Amino acid sequence: xxxxxxxxxxxxxxxxxxxxxxxxxxxxxxxxxxxxxxxxxxxxxxxxxxxxxxxxxxxxxxxxxxxxxxxxxxxxxxxxxxxxxxxxxxxxxxxxxxxxxxxxxxxxxxxxxxxxxxxxxxxxxxxxxxxxxxxxxxxxxxxxxxxxxxxxxxxxxxxxxxxxxxxxxxxxxxxxxxxxxxxxxxxxxxxxxxxxxxxxxxxxxxxxxxxxxxxxxxxxxxxxxxxxxxxxxxxxxxxxxxxxxxxxxxxxxxxxxxxxxxxxxxxxxxxxxxxxxxxxxxxxxxxxxxxxxxxxxxxxxxxxxxxxxxxxxxxxxxxxxxxxxxxxxxxxxxxxxxxxxxxxxxxxxxxxxxxxxxxxxxxxxxxxxxxxxxxxxxxxxxxxxxxxxxxxxxxxxxxxxxxxxxxxxxxxxxxxxxxxxxxxxxxxxxxxxxxxxxxxxxxxxxxxxxxxxxxxxxxxxxxxxxxxxxxxxxxxxxxxxxxxxxxxxxxxxxxxxxxxxxxxxxxxxxxxxxxxxxxxxxxxxxxxxxxxxxxxxxxxxxxxxxxxxxxxxxxxxxxxxxxxxxxxxxxxxxxxxxxxxxxxxxxxxxxxxxxxxxxxxxxxxxxxxxxxxxxxxxxxxxxxxxxxxxxxxxxxxxxxxxxxxxxxxxxxxxxxxxxxxxxxxxxxxxxxxxxxxxxxxxxxxxxxxxxxxxxxxxxxxxxxxxxxxxxxxxxxxxxxxxxxxxxxxxxxxxxxxxxxxxxxxxxxxxxxxxxx
Length: 756
Ligand code: HDD
Hints:
Helices cover about 25% and strands about 15% of the residues. By secondary structure, the chain is of the alpha+beta class. The chain has 4 domains: about 1-40, no CATH class; about 130-435, Catalase core domain (Catalase HpII,  Chain A, domain 1, Beta Barrel), CATH 2.40.180; about 505-580, Up-down Bundle (Hemocyanin, N-terminal domain), CATH 1.20.1370.20; about 595-750, 3-Layer(aba) Sandwich (Rossmann fold). Helix 15 (about 605-620) links the parallel strand 13 (about 595-600) and strand 14. The longest helix has 17 residues, at about 405-420. About 45% of the residues are buried. The structure holds CIS-heme D hydroxychlorin gamma-spirolactone. The site of CIS-heme D hydroxychlorin gamma-spirolactone has 27 residues, from strand 2, strand 3, strand 4 and helix 10. One of its GO terms (molecular function) is heme binding. One of its GO terms (cellular component) is cytosol.
């Protein structure tokens, strides 16, 4: 249906090209034809929105259009024009002295077109270059109003938002599923000005002072001589840095855990990381840490899956987010707040709240929900919106203030500064996606890319020429007034407080909070990354760091490195685990999960597939039909569109794989070569790509199964049919019900060597 619509749209556009009805302005040239659709597969079926998922209207409190609406204003009208609006009769050939003669310098259209193209790129972000974003709406619950006067957190206030997710280390074109921290930056277009919550999916940071930021990023980025490896932490400079700076131990441990390879942006937590300060209407203050809690739960890939995805579909997370929104499965997060009394020490239960390498366990300070974020629309133009959006932790609104976290202090400088080279000058707030949805009445003037036409003669204040305008606001009229916190009498020094020196008790708590299977993944990740380092001294130093977290962790990684395990040099801290840190052991909604259904070959197979496909849709999930070749599967009822072929389907795309009977055997020599027969115990008869699909899904802890003879195919793929999470039914509906139960737990954890 989507392709049909695209075809029709191309046809209509061609018809609309000339008011006189002709479809081409060049006499003698054939009218343009809609492009032929050769792609054998179809994209995902749109999901019917659930009643509670109907999209809230994106609106601006001031009635100004949102960024998306403004973008739609570009590229309008029937005729192709120059940048100056002059209509063009030809745009495919340079102006020449004769068709075989030299190109003429007087061709102003050629020069304008090429010059503009030459300058299409802007510098990519120095960190977080690779990202994807979406529009949405935030609704306050009102629960935070006891502690903050921020208008957007008041009950039922709806605020438009733009959220950008990102990886940190890779370039703009790098793969989505690399092991890395993910950015989670939210721009709230509030009625009191823009508020940006520029967070990550990991609640702690590598360093405690912004002056170290260039160092940690230089160490993580590719080596400066050969510019490799891209988007990886598995190299010497990264491990050199994080082992020489033991304050990086906690963040590194989170990166090596499953949090470093999320299944989807929709299934990540987000954290403001720093402690902020909330202010109520009376001026009373409370310290706060912000959390985003995804409605779909926190889920990850397994490492092999992430690696295969990097090759098969480097845009996996970007595609997943866009597809879900387009299908009406709007991702949602609750914004939560952990609050703490604003005492002079700024500690809670002995944890220093100004140290960004610390978390406060949720068991000690529960996360209280304060509002709901729903992403409802994809950007209309990647460059205009996702690339040009400029976040800044200093974009604050009344009711939210900063603390003296020294990492935050440097950020307050950096984000404004970086936009000046990235977006070409100081007027980036005028770019549609960055415009506040409140009236702007500043006295900033001129500069590169000034698009406002300021009126008045007196851009200074006080003035008498412009009638004294504009006036200043007060606390009663939503002015931003810094909290007058006392500054301790002290000497100027370049040093950190002694409380910043505990680098191991928090990582130890994280390690002790993990389930056995999560610990196994962490051990495998450290072993992989350190084995990719060349320097022996770095590996030995890394083992010493691990010994100070936990001897078992250290011992197992040491075995993998073929090195002796050192003894701890610090006393292992006595800490209670925080069960909230583990991703395993709970159940979650299955909305938007992807079920691959491999078509069977025999009589009645298509009917069985049709009814299961329908049931998958009714459960709010996405069915993808897989067959030997593209096209339609025909039987008595409506033909069913094939969405993936044996050549294009790979396990990483599916959360579960079902066989609707016995699939067609290998149909060509290419198929047999494409999948290594060695993937399976016995590939006789079945297409090896189907066997690989099954064995890979099984290995990655996914639900697999089928009906009507599927058992033999599963066995041929080397899958024991009695194993946990293998579902073999008489018919499709029984099998699907079991699959839904399995998907609610994300993976069949029992299948991993350590079990749960
Ligand atoms: Fe940063 C981008 C998150 C520390 C300097 N950062 C950036 C983005 C996110 C974060 C999500 C991407 C925003 C977008 O999508 O456009 N950064 C963090 C978090 C940090 C952190 C959670 C620690 C708690 N960052 C940090 C420090 C500095 C920077 C200490 C510098 C002193 N970050 C930047 C930057 C970037 C940026 C260079 C690059 C592009 C941009 O700002 O707009 O200014």
